[in-house]
Specification:
Length: about 325
């Protein structure tokens, strides 16, 4: 596989980090000779039986025993703690393309295991899935997505891989009343959640621990568009979770929400350049700080959510 570009996006403003995120591109290939999960059954609001993970694997440092296709996404479960993790890949409410018609499935769900013991990969695929929002709101069934999840033995790496889709920016209003384009790993116990958000080519990566984050903050952690064909998001477990391994730029902002003047307090002057972006990743403002205590005029910004990036750390603020 030819990797076209590689971008490391580091965690922001958290004392711990369980994963690093790598964004790359690679040729998307449908699974061949895979084992069917739905066995020709139409899906949309139904759960399928759990399947044993064929090797030792961990999510967020927790041993996973089974995975299941539930509703429209994949849930990974731990027998030790009875906890579950949702791997939110598509970001839309997906359903079988034949859901409204009946008969046999037109959106197969399957998996296969490749490789030799010690370096196996569990590959899971949803093929040619439609959108419930399109069917409900417009009565049409034209949109489609293809994606895979790859689970790596030994390294505990997780990859989200995206195939062909016809979803464009014009379709985004269909998804706004749900979770918009949500791509994440969600812990059902709220001990650990991570979100990709912003530009799908260079997404920000936010990790939350112990239920951190307000509802409005979490609602803002969405993608500005659907990932293009060939996009790969790789979650690599951190080797020293809970340490300052990334040498993160430490700063605080207030007030948040803000009306006109945003205060920024730096911990030290090792990094002084800043960039303010909107939720599409577009640069709105940039500059350089000369002191530890600083103020930025944001009164001219339109109301909405923005990010301020200093060094390798991004924090979000809401402009009223």
């Amino acid at each position: 596989m030819l990797v076209i570009f590689l971008i490391i996006v580091k965690t922001n403003a958290q004392e711990q980090s369980l994963y690093t995120l790598t964004t790359s591109t690679a040729t998307y290939t449908d699974l061949e000779n895979a084992i069917s999960i739905n066995n020709g059954q139409i899906w949309g609001n139904n759960d399928f039986n759990p399947i044993q993970v064929p090797f030792s694997f961990k999510i967020a440092e927790e041993t996973i025993s089974t995975f299941a296709f539930e509703q429209d996404n994949f849930t990974f479960s731990s027998e030790q703690s009875d906890n579950k993790y949702d791997l939110e890949v598509s970001g839309i409410v997906a359903l079988d393309k034949n859901f409204a018609v009946g008969g046999l499935s037109h959106s197969p769900v399957s998996y296969k295991v490749e490789g030799t013991e010690g370096s196996r990969i569990l590959k899971i695929e949803v093929k040619n899935a439609g959108s419930e929002d399109e069917l409900t709101e417009k009565g049409t069934n034209n949109l489609f997505i293809n994606f895979q999840i790859w689970i790596y033995e030994t390294s505990n790496i997780i990859e989200y891989r995206y195939g062909n889709t016809n979803i464009t920016a014009q379709d985004l209003p269909l998804f706004q009343e749900d979770d918009a384009i949500l791509i994440a790993i969600i812990d059902k116990n709220d001990d650990y959640d991570c979100y990709l958000h912003g530009n799908p080519l260079t997404p920000d990566f936010t990790q939350l621990f112990d239920g951190a984050g307000t509802e409005s903050e979490i609602d803002s952690y969405v993608m500005s568009s659907f990932p293009a064909n060939g996009t790969v998001y790789r979650f690599t477990p951190s080797t020293t979770a809970g340490t300052e391994q990334f040498n993160k730029t430490q700063f605080s902002i207030y007030p948040n929400p803000v009306t006109s003047m945003l205060n920024i307090s730096l911990e030290k002057m090792d990094v002084t350049d800043y960039i303010i972006t909107d939720m599409t990743g577009k640069t709105i403002q940039k500059g350089t700080f000369k002191t530890l205590e600083n103020t930025i005029e944001v009164g001219d910004l339109s109301s909405g959510m923005y990010g301020i990036k200093i060094g390798n750390t991004t924090q979000k603020f809401l402009k009223k």
